[in-house]
Amino acid sequence: MFRKPVAVILVPTLSFGDATGTDVFGMREALQSAGYEVRIFADAAGAASEAKPARKAFSFLRRHRGLVIYHHGIQWESGTKLLDLVRGPLMIRDHNVTPSRFFEGINDDYSENTRRGLEQRRALASRSNVARYLPCSNFSASELTSFGANPALVTPLPPIHNIDRLINTDSDGETLKRWSQNPADILFVGRIAPNKGHRRLIRIAAIYRELFGESLRVRFVGPIADELRAWQQLLEEDAGKMGLRSQIDITGAVSVEELKAAYLTSRLFVSCSEHEGFCVPLVEASAMGLPILIGEQSAMVETMGDVAMTFGKTQDDAMATMIHRLLKSPVDRENVRREQQLSMERRFARKVLLDRFLEIVHQVGT
What we know:
This protein is an alpha/beta fold. The chain is built from 15 helices and twelve strands.
């Protein structure tokens, strides 16, 4: 028997460095600081060896009563079966699900998995034993309530990040040297996937050259799933057709030290993503001192708040013009950077998020 209150975290895949994994580890840290004995169960844990196999959660939940936090972001058949065994308070951490339409024609299996993930999300919204839903934004909260979740049980909580780790990490020396010799005008951080807006950024780079007679160096940093290699190929074909192949750098997955180098050798952060549940890289880029421009997507606009520099789907020329203005004016660039950084620090400081999470946990009880 445990002498401390027990908290169980269920997550399909756990890895260091991605937004979901960082959120999980942040929750564990907060719960342990509040005196909980925390157990993490995952189907796949990679280097996160302290997570137990999800199959062992079945016997654990039958034996122990306590708080359970279920992270949902992709389809997880075995995970949803675990929820029928929960005897204590159940919290659903909602990371949103990218709509399957983005993957149609790219990878049918991937599209089907996201479709099933959305079906599970709808089912979770109507479960009778949920004590609290924790979507990452008001955007996701509104979707949950439209699926049937009781609004009184829906409490938005931004993802718990660990940006201090990035700030305090030394950049990779070789990567810093290489990218310093060819710095990026525009940086985007996020997985290489059809919803992330890479194609629009390539088009904007082409428009920029037409308008101003200069080329932009664009760097895409983020992992590439094997199932989505066709999407990477499409991006490379786009760049080639527009005569930008040498200007578009797709790095693939990077270490935290390499990510630090990417931020230090870039001038602007631009996201044209078409679907996000929150978008942690916006907070990350702000903390690293990059001015941010975004496309008009609800969750990103919410994350940026009153310091958002937003451009709708038909405003590629306007975005290219603003990119030019900020690149050519250090004063304008500094003013935007400072306002955005102050706003992000005030709203999304890690301690603020940890304290808010524990406040919700105490409201729910054990």
